[in-house]
Structure formats: structure tokens, C-alpha cells
Design brief:
With 353 residues, the protein is mostly helical. The chain has a single domain, classed as Glycosyltransferase (Alpha/alpha barrel). Helices cover 55% and strands 4% of the residues. It contains 15 helices and 5 strands. The chain has a 3-stranded antiparallel beta sheet with strand order 1-2-3, with helices on one face. A hairpin with a 4-residue loop joins strand 2 and strand 3. It is globular and about 50 Å long.
Amino acid sequence: MCRPFIIVMVLSAAALAAFVAAGCDEGGTPNEWESPEVYGDDDDDAADEDDVLATAVALADTWTSYHDPASLAWSWDAAVLMMGLFDLSRVTGDASWADYAIAWLDHHIDAGYTIASSDTAVPAAVALLAWRATGDDRYLAVGDDAWDYIENKAGRTSDGGLNHLGWISGNELWIDSLFMIGPFLMDYADATGDDAPAREYAHQLNVFRKHLRDDATGLYRHRYNDDTGEVAPAEALFWGRGNGWVFAAQNIAAARLPESARADLEFDLEEDLDAMRASIVSMTPQDGRFHTIVNAAASYRETSAGLLFAYGLATAVRDGRTDRAASIDWIERASSPSRPRWKFSRSWNCVYT
């Protein structure tokens, strides 16, 4: 893997739960403790490759030093962090990050877990990483449970879209689900040699696109209610983090969907990604720090959208689907607000200095 993309392939994954789940928005306040500043200098040059990796390691080290893995819930935020820690172990060769993620899994497997929504299905993606690392079938069994939930238990819209909140709410699609279930379904298809999970994901991509994609921009609205037929927001306003989930997930799908599943797609995935990228680039602020509603300047600014957009484009570069030279400057720009000026408190609130 190209070292310049560690910032988006590892830092944006390993730190994503910290940036996203902690709500690192303008106005965050530090609590009683601040970490040493683990970032580099403040100039506008492209990040030094070693500094980028050092920042990813420092972030992971700070988090794991202050948070017992057993204290983290069985949910999307912890699971995204664990996916990133596995990435960090792969890049650095340091198994301690993966060991932390496995300790989190072990705690919840021993204590008992419930998969009843897209947000509680994503830990199964971590379990498959642990299964590949250890060969222990107790982790594969978590994947079996998640697939059983998706295939047999999850609430669905009239055309088969997965209800994001499972048994909690009515039949609603939320764009977050495309990331929360997508990597797992493709990994599970690969692990079992059965293309049904991957084909299920292709179906979800079709359904979500039909109800939530804006043809003019290629971006997605947040929610669709199948009981009322209403889309929210009604206006052409686009949640940055949610579209980041879509952009990241679809770039992963472009590389990993098997041919049998790709044949089920009712649209050209690469054309959709090109359209989405063009809109994202056109809406990128000069400093790279997106508004939470990317086309609403009155909305507050935050870091998670840029990280996800950069992660998605870096995936395309890594997989040879887009040109590195034409992409690196924008990847640096979209991810840079997360690197130079954030400090973290013990409760993982943020202050922008």
C-alpha cells in the first residue's frame, strides 16, 4: 500500500470512531485532561509520510491507553474503530492493535450480544477480521448471526431495503446502512464461498439508490420512509457524513463485489461514483473542512465527512480505479483538517485550536 495514503486508509479508519462518535464539531470543549499534541507542524505542505503514520499510531495509542475495550459498546462506533485498528496492525506489523480489537470482541461474545439493526450488525465485520487472523470459528459464528439477522429477521421496505433501526422503528432506509452492512456482506461472501450475501448487498445498493439518490448531484438524501413514501430532508440538502458513508462503501464495493453480484446492479457503479466525486469536489471548502450539510453554508463544520470522502477516494487510488496524481492533492485537502489542530480530552471531546 502507498504510504502517502496511510492518513486516509488507516488514520481515517482507526480514528473515525473518535472523530465521528465523539462529535468533533466546532464548539467542542476539552475536559480535565488533554493529550500531548500528537500532530505535526501547521504548514500547508503535504504531510510527511512518517509523520502521518506516527499520528495514526499516536491516536490509537492514546485511545487504547485510556479505554478498556470491555467498556466500549457493541455498536457501529466501536466497530469502525476496531476495523481501523486491524488496518493499523496490518500496516505497522504491530499486533497489539488487533489484539485490542479481539479483546473487545471476546468481551461481548462472552457477555452476549444482540444483532437487531444495521448499527449492531457492523461488529460482525470485525469478527471476520478476527477469524482470518486467528482461525477461531467463534468469530465466524458472529458472522453467521449477522447474516441470519439480515437474511431472516431484519425489517424491510416493500422492495426489500433493510430497515436501518431494525426492530426499533418503522420501515426506514438510512444511508448509513450502506457502510454498516456492506463490508460485512462482501467479507462474509468471501469467507463462506457463497455469493448470496454479496448479491444481497447489490440489491441494497439498488434499492437505496432508487429512493435516496439525487440525480442532479449524485449525492444522497438521508432517509426514506416506506410507509409514507417521504424522503428526508425534502429539500435537496445532503448530510456530509452520511454521503461519506455512501462514498466509502460504494468505492469498497467497486473493488470487491464479485461478478455475480455486480451483474445484479441496475446502474453503472463507476459512473455514479464519478458523479458523486464531482459534486463532493465542487463543494469542498478551501480549507477542506466540510459543513455538516455539505451544500448549506449555515450548517456547522466538522471533520468526519472529509475523512470518509478521502478514505473512499484513496480506496479507488489504491485499487487502480482512479489516477493517483490527479487525486492526491484533494485527498490531502479533505483529510487535513483532522490532522493538525485537534486535541483530545479523556472523554474524547474535542477542541479546535
